[in-house]
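Exercise: predict the fold of this chain.
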Amino acid sequence: MVPPYLISKAIEEGLRGGDRVALGWWCGALVVVVGVLALVGIARHRTMTLVRTDAALRTAQVVVEHVTRLGGVVRRKLSAGELTYLQNGDTQRIAHALTSTGPGVGAVVAYAVTAVLLVRISPLVAVVVLLGVPVLALVTAPVLRRLHVVEAGYRQSQGELSSRAGDIVAGLKVLSGIGGKPAFEERFRSGSREVLRDGYRVSVWLSWVQVLWGLPTLFLGVVTWIVARMAVSGDITIEEMVAVYLYVGTLIVPVSFFVEGADMIPRALVSAGRVIDLLRLRPEEKDDGAAVFEVKPGVLTVVVSSNAAAAREAVERVPGQVVVADNDDYLFPGTVLEAVSVGEHSDVEVERAVWAAAAVDVLEALPDGLGSHLESQGRNVSGGQRQRLRLVRALLSDPEVLVLVEPTSALDAVTEAAVAERVKQARCGRTTVVVSSSPLWAGQADQVVCLEENR
């Protein structure tokens, strides 16, 4: 708000007063202030970017660390879609709200300063400006809020369609075998049409927003007409008219920050509530009705149950430094070595884990062995090969307690027998729990636990 004041003084004392020295001083002060504002603007933008990035990273770290501590509880309490939206949507909303807070406070200060300056010039102009700007905000805010709603729906429908596409690609061979491709194709087409309709809704509200961005210019024109009439009638001076014009034009910028903050902060509070709800989740306490059994340390225990969910719930309660590996675990894209490595490992350790998982033939079938490219979720290898690569990764993690859930369900009997025997050798002296109904695993077990109706 300083440059409009300097310009009005340059007009009053320099141009109208005919004092060239005063004109030079006021113009020099204006150049200095504009230069300082440019530097401050750069610093502000850098700080806002730092705050936004830092906030998003810290929130993501807190969420990931807590989810890691929760383990299997997350799968029962939250869907993958909810967790993904929390990380991608809610985290960004919280971060953007933090960058809106500072400029929002600055907007309030600028508004108060402008009110004082305008009252000194003309109370009537002050009333018009100070009431007109909030009216602009009230008119614009509902449209922006509606735009955010339809944009959120558009992003959600896009995410669902992308997930459906991924599922179709992952199960394409199965769909071809059972003749299900036409049905899933129609589902995908229907989802695409919904996304298209959501996209049109977004464009409609965007067009209204573009229309509303013209309101500040219209308001500026109204104020200019009022002060021009007052200048002609002699109620205010020319320099005061110029000052009012510049104050109003400058005030539009901080007010836009204020409107943005007023819109972002309530939505960020909702997002923060979702994050807090996640952080309030705690590992489930032992249920008296749940299956409980003792795992002997340093041996291979095989859990046999007709109810896979009950067996999974039971083994998740094993205390200590536990790694639970099952067939839903994610395989990240990259080289095979990158996908199966957990930290730094020697060539001997990798070879031993590959041998124990009976995955030597998997690497031989790939063009570059461990250096071969693996697509997301291992989509360029078969189900049995993916299962053995997951087992390699689990063995390389070398935890105090390793829990394997149906680690060989997609393998033939010969390969399964080899895996059971080799895993027992590789994990000799450490605690290993395997959930499997296969007699081949039971035959290798040091301890067999049979779960029936939670007993």
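Check your answer against the key: The CA atoms of residues 159 and 409 lie 31 Å apart.
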